[in-house]
Amino acid sequence: AVVSTQSTGKGFRLAPPGIKSRLLGMTTSVKVKAPVLGGNFGTWGLTFAACDCTLIYLRNKEDHWNSITAGAATGGILSMRSGPQAAVTSAIIGGVLLAMIEGISIAITRVGAEQFKPVMPTLPDAA
Fold it and tell me: Which residues make Cβ contacts (< 8 Å) with residue 85, sequence separation at least 6?
């Protein structure tokens, strides 16, 4: 969504004056960037899924640590070509982002579980 918004703004800014030209520039810019964005997302998703499934297989358990570690591994693997410092930095960023996502997921699950807790029924007083 962020890249699409950036492409839209760039297409609008760089188009010739006139509303029709600017709208055409916006759509053209998004159309040009869409395959690149889709390919990047697919590459990230495939790498993350491979790392996550490998960790599940190796650890014989499925928990939040697998996702966090897979996020760190994915960040490192995808930026390896830029050198070791970039790989370590991206791995840290990937791990932190996935830790935040998993933390929010746990919090939402706990809040949602509160409403389904059993409540002790109150009996009317028999006096």
Answer: none
- Beta carbons within 8 Å of 33's beta carbon, 6+ residues apart: 3, 4, 7
| 73-80, long-range: CB < 8 A, 24+ apart | 74/44, 74/47, 74/48, 77/47, 77/51, 78/43, 78/44, 78/47
Q: Which helix (H) or strand (E) holds 93?
A: helix 84-114
Q: What is the pTM of this model?
A: 0.71
- Interval 48-91: pLDDT, tens: 999 999 999 999 999 999 999 999 999 999 999 999 999 999 99
Asked if residue 76 lies in contact with residue 94, where contact means CB atoms within 8 angstroms, the answer is yes
What is the distance between the alpha carbons of residues 68 and 61, in angstroms, rounded to a whole number?
14
User: 10 Å Cβ neighbour count for 70?
Assistant: 23
Q: Read off the tokens for 60.
A: 């014989």
